[in-house]
Amino acid sequence: MKKLIVLCLLIIGGSNAIAQQVFTLDSCRNMAINNNKQIRIANEKIKAAGYEKKSAFANYLPGFDAVGGYMYNSKEISLLSDKQKEQLSNAGTNTLAPIMQQIIAQHPELGPQLQQLGAGIINSVNGAGQSLVNALRTNTTNMFGGAITLTQPIYMGGKIRAYNQITKYAEELAKTQKNTAVKDLVFQTDEIYWQVVSLVYKKKLAESYVNLLDSLYQNVEAMIAEGVATQSDGLTVAVKQNEAQITLTKVSDGLSLSKMLLAQICGLPINMPYTLADEIEELHEENLPTPTNSINMDEVYANRSEIQSLTLATEIYKQKQKVALSAMLPNLALTGSYMFSNPNVFNSFEKRVDGFFNVGVMLKIPVFHWGKDFYKVKAAKTERNIALLNLEEAKEKIELQVNQATFKVNEANKKLIMTRKNMEKAEENLRNAQIGFEEGVLTTDNVLEAQTAWLQAQSEKIDAEIDVRLCEVYLSKAMGLMK
Predict the structure, then answer these.
(1) CA-to-CA dists, residue 328 to 59, 277, 319, angstroms
(2) What pTM does this model have?
(3) 3-state secondary structure of 51
(4) Helices and strands in the chain: count of H runs, count of E runs
């Protein structure tokens, strides 16, 4: 029971802690980057590119390969025919026996001795012939064999070096693509962050407007009771009250949805209560960014990850052109191997494992392929030209983007100054209208007009303050300075 109570207290305490969490713009950016799946995918692509780079470097080093096999033959390879085997096995009988018969026919008295002596000689010759037949047997029914080879590239037409350069640029390209993805995500997070802040201020403004109308309605009701105002005045204010409540509801719903979207991007629970740092304090003029007048486009190009990616892509296509060209150049490699088999043929067909070494040089010179490789080089050169054109087009678009962003920043700052002046006038107008209404000089319509003007001026001021910050975000992204 005690453990259950402690657990409940911890959950309640944790909930209170979460409810009190305040997130700054930087913390939202960091949470979004850590939570985003595309950034994780980009990290994996960087790893894969690094492995490809290491794999390409291995082409400089000698390669070792081993191969082996076993084969069963239903028939044994024979160096002698069956007739030759029979003749060798019966060489004594076929050659010496007739001679012995002739000698015995001429000298019958030597018959028993010659037969005994001839039989031994004939058997010895037959045994020698059979031994020769056995010696020439190949024993190839069960065969084992294998080889260990070494290949060291010496010159491959520049292909190996080009592949290493391609994998190097590919790794850098993966990093710049991740950088682009991070900046896009930060840009999206900033947009939603300031949208939430804007809606928070709009909600406060809507609540203040509702309070003004409530106060005005109470005053009008009191004046109606005293007979100095009409029911029409009360209905007019009531209609405005309902409109203000609808506006407040819309702003509250929009704020809730925006906060849910920001929480989802940051990897937080959708319904988690939180507060943004810029909600707490009002935006001050001294914190606003200053207009930008001069921009060095060369620095912008150096900072933009898109230009870096396109530049790397151009270099990759340049190396691919060298790879295509290498097919038209000679290839030279050093080879060596050790081959073995059982049975082996180094000591007749000996039934044991034995082998031999060999070392050589292999040269391949392309002679004529109907222009196939030549057209591949042309195609690779065309792809490189396309990449260069894409790079030039991207620079033109970025220059336009930077100029537009600069113009918007300057325009937003001017608009903010104007809205602040309008806000001062609207506040003064509302104060005078309220005083005049209390003194009976002005009507309800005059007060409502002043309140409406104040609401519009305040709303425009909030929009201008947020717009200045968003324009600064746009400019930072366009200049490649977003960190």
Answers:
(1) 19, 65, 15
(2) 0.76
(3) helix
(4) 13, 6
